[in-house]
Amino acid sequence: MAELAERQPGQGYTPIDEAKRQRLLELVRGRAMARPTDLAEDEVMVWPSLVVVEAVSAVVFLLGLIVLSVLVNAPLTAHANPNQTPNPSKAPWYFLNLQELLLHMNAGLAGVIIPTIALVGIAAIPYIDRSPLGVGILGTSAKGRKIIAFTTVYTIIVQTVMVVLDEASDRQQFGLGAVLKDAGMPEIVYGQMLPSLIILGAIGVLMAMVQGIFRPTRREMIIALFTGFVVTYVMLTIFGTSFRGEGQELTMPWNLPLEHH
Amino acid sequence: MRREQTLADRITGSAVWRSVVRHGYPDTQRNQALIIASNVFLHIHPVKIKRYATKVTYTFCLGGLSFFMFLVLVMTGVLLMFYYVPSTDLAYQSMQDIEASVTFGQLMRNMHRWSAQGMVIAVFLHMGRVFYTGSYKPPREFNWVIGVLLLVTTFLLSFTGYLLPWDQLSFWAVTVGTAIGGAAPLLGQYVNFLLVGDYQIGQNTLVRWYTLHVIFLPLIAAFLMAVHFWRIRKDGGISGPL
Ligand code: HEM
What's the Cα-to-Cα distance from A77 to each of A84, A260, B236, rounded to whole Å? Predict the structure, then answer.
């Protein structure tokens, strides 16, 4: 074929040299080099392109899980005993963020109202930010990624300062709660309204700073808020799991009772 | 002219084989399409997808891993159910039996425990990946909401399982957890009773949480996942750069 194509016009056929002529001997089944395809430029077949990724990640994960499970045993402590309260008693680690929050304010606010608002807020994100800008790009834009970094640093600092300060004031909302309590205010004021204001304040300062420094789009502002939520969640979980000892006092991780290490 | 038939040819050419597998060896595009379309498990996938959707550094396989961990949990969970007895008298004893006398019992328990915790982490990270790539934007809003429900279901699955060993750790963790629920304004008392099924954590609580853990919540999760996966396809596959 290639020879035919290359032949110059006007050049005639060379007569067939019978000695060199080849006969068709056999048809062999094999893989064709090129096949007609209806795949677009940016598409691939799911089998094998995606199925291979899935299978390999499943196998790698399963091997990792088996190795972990051979090496580390799930905990089984003493038989449940309603008459013997361990000190500290802790929820499973993924709820320790709530248990930590609980130390600083009214239990209903920390354990039910705030998580409910957080979940409803998260579910509402796509109805608030509807612009298709930045889909498929991690952090939306260079600015978006800077906002993530900024918010992370802000939240880590504010969160740590708030927990430590509140602890220093005997968990009385930095002492403000004690003042209101002594002034004869009801619990709803110092246990619920005051902590809510403090939280809203911390969020407000974050939004104002992000607004002032970055002039963000709506999407980028939501990035700041979501990042603030995630970092808070992680920070409170770390405080709850690793820094709360007997009587839920702030404790260094290496001083915790053994079963909480 | 004819190639000799190998044993493999005979097997794959037999009437029994052809009745089960309706496609040839997947080295042609036609067969690669058929293998996806004719298999009930694979057909949650489309036949072809955008190249960027197969990039591991886009999804980090997190949604897929959450689902895979769920499958591991179902399988190891069923094995544990053969031995576990949801009674305050026998539960702890059956945990000890699983660990000490059941073949691979300890391994099954460990795998169940660690993938339960892994699933909580993976689902949370998956939510982060979806958020930071802006993949919740229209037309995927509803799937994001389904995702939030899946997150809550995952937490509940993990928490209901936590009580079952009936040891000090589980008993007091659940005491703390249900007290948090009981602090709900106005409804607290009812929420607490709903969770505990009694005035204190005991046999009623255990049966309640066991039932939720082994049948009710897994069904809810499977139902939500079916909707979740279906919607991914109906929303045009994995999101990508415009
Ligand atoms: C049990 C929990 C979950 C499972 C098994 C699951 C599974 C999956 C899978 C397999 C995908 C395909 C892409 C990928 O792997 O990233 C996906 C995509 C998606 N998930 Fe989930 N998911 C779960 C929870 C969530 C949560 C908590 C959210 C958000 C709150 C969420 C929102 C989404 C959205 C919006 C997509 C489409 C992403 C895109 O188009 O890029 N899912 N999910």
Answer: 13, 12, 49
Assembly ipTM? 0.91
Domain that holds residue B211: 53-234
Report which DSSP code applies to A94. G
Are A198 and A173 spatial neighbours (Cβ–Cβ below 8 Å)? yes
Total of domains in chain A: 1
CB contact under 8 A, A49 and B177: no
Cα separation values, B49 from A39, A197, B105, B236, Å: 9, 49, 41, 10
Could you tell me if B40 and B131 lie in one domain? no
Is the pTM higher than 0.80? The answer reads yes
Q: Is the CB of B63 under 6 A from ligand 1?
A: yes
Tell whether B106 is covered by a domain.
yes
Q: Tens digits of per-residue pLDDT, B110-119?
A: 999 999 999 9
Q: What is the structure's pLDDT at A163?
A: 93
- The whole-angstrom distance between B114's CA and the closest CA on chain A is 7
Considering only CA atoms, which of A234, A61, A59, A259 is closest in space to residue B118?
A: A61
B180, B112: one domain: yes
Question: Do B59 and B150 have their domain in common?
Answer: yes
Does residue B64 share a domain with residue B134?
yes
